[in-house]
Every structure is written in C-alpha cells, then in structure tokens.
C-alpha cells in the first residue's frame, strides 16, 4: 500500500512525545483521508452523526455508522482510506497514542 494525499483537511491540535491529536474535516461527500497505515494505536471521536466509508486493500468498502462523541479504538497496523459518505460536512478527532510512558 502506498500512502496518498486525500481531500480531507487534517489540523494537528496537539503533538508531543505522548499523543498526537488531529481533527480530520471532510467538507463534501467523497472527501477522503488518503490511503495510510496507522503506526500506533489510536482513538477516534466523531463530531457528527452519520456514515464514513472505510476502504481497505483489495477494494473492500465498509460503512461505519458513527454517533457524535461516541469514541472507538483501533490497534496499530490498520491500513485504509476513510471517505465521507454523507451529504454534509463532517469531522472527527483522531488521538494517536505515541508513548505509553
């Protein structure tokens, strides 16, 4: 998998030795993060009620139905592209766990 640049806008809010917190904003339906692999464990906190389409290698597409403020956790190694499946702007906060200390 080759990492690619998507059309969603990442805004790094905190970046230190222990965590990186990034807001991912998707202005339009179809905007995406670009293909990437997560090198560390992470938590996502949706800022909307709606759907993201998760594309994985091999062409698999799964819908993730999210609720505002309801977080989910994933372990390092996940490879995917995340796509806005909504007819409205959406965003989520991604918290990467860099160092357990």
TrEMBL record:
<dbReference type="InterPro" id="IPR011051">
    <property type="entry name" value="RmlC_Cupin_sf"/>
</dbReference>
<dbReference type="InterPro" id="IPR014710">
    <property type="entry name" value="RmlC-like_jellyroll"/>
</dbReference>
<protein>
    <recommendedName>
        <fullName>Cupin domain protein</fullName>
    </recommendedName>
</protein>
């Amino acid at each position: 998998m080759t990492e690619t640049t998507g059309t969603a806008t990442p805004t790094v809010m905190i970046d230190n030795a222990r965590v990186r917190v990034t807001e991912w904003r998707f202005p339009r339906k179809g905007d995406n993060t670009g293909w990437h692999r997560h090198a560390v464990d992470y938590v996502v906190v949706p800022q909307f009620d709606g759907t993201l389409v998760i594309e994985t290698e091999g062409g698999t597409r799964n819908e993730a139905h999210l609720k505002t403020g309801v977080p989910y956790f994933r372990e390092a190694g996940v490879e995917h592209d995340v796509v806005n499946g909504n007819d409205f702007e959406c965003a989520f906060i991604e918290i990467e766990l860099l160092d357990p200390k």
